[in-house]
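User: Design a sequence. Structure:
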């Protein structure tokens, strides 16, 4: 399989607050910055568009509402991705000394904090895959995103 055929997912970290939905998108494709955009919207059409084609990570207190978004899914979790990376042998020893200070809209803080965690996982996977590729010569594999049950 050539590298062009590997599908690197976009992750959508989604937090629902009554009528408002917060979405942080995280890019996993090598060569792109992981944090690729953030939205706070009340528009159902915007939400559906932003999660379409992405692997969705529900966060916050309203997971069931996130799972009910039309066209959303597949779904995964930070814990599931972390477990898969550990199983693959990725060293996840890097801890943030001090998490960056959040200064945005208060309703977006939970999604942002989770997007930062996911970004760290993406960067750890990219480093792992780069070393593996140098050793084995294979294509860069996509970040594992096991589905939620």
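Assistant: Done.
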């Amino acid at each position: 399989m050539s590298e062009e055929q590997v599908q690197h997912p976009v992750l959508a970290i989604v937090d629902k607050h009554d009528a408002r939905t917060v979405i942080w998108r995280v890019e996993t494709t090598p060569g792109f910055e992981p944090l690729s955009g953030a939205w706070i919207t009340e528009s159902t059409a915007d939400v559906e568009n932003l999660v379409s084609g992405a692997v969705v990570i529900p966060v916050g207190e309203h997971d069931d509402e996130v799972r009910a978004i039309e066209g959303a899914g597949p779904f995964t979790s930070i814990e599931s991705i972390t477990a898969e990376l550990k199983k693959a042998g990725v060293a996840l020893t890097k801890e943030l000394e001090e998490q960056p200070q959040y200064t945005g809209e208060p309703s977006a803080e939970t999604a942002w904090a989770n997007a930062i965690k996911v970004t760290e996982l993406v960067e750890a996977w990219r480093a792992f895959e780069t070393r593996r590729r140098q050793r084995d010569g294979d294509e860069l594999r996509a970040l594992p995103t096991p589905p939620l049950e």
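Strands lie at 10-17, 20-27, 35-41, 55-59. Residues 52 and 71 are 6 Å apart (CA to CA).
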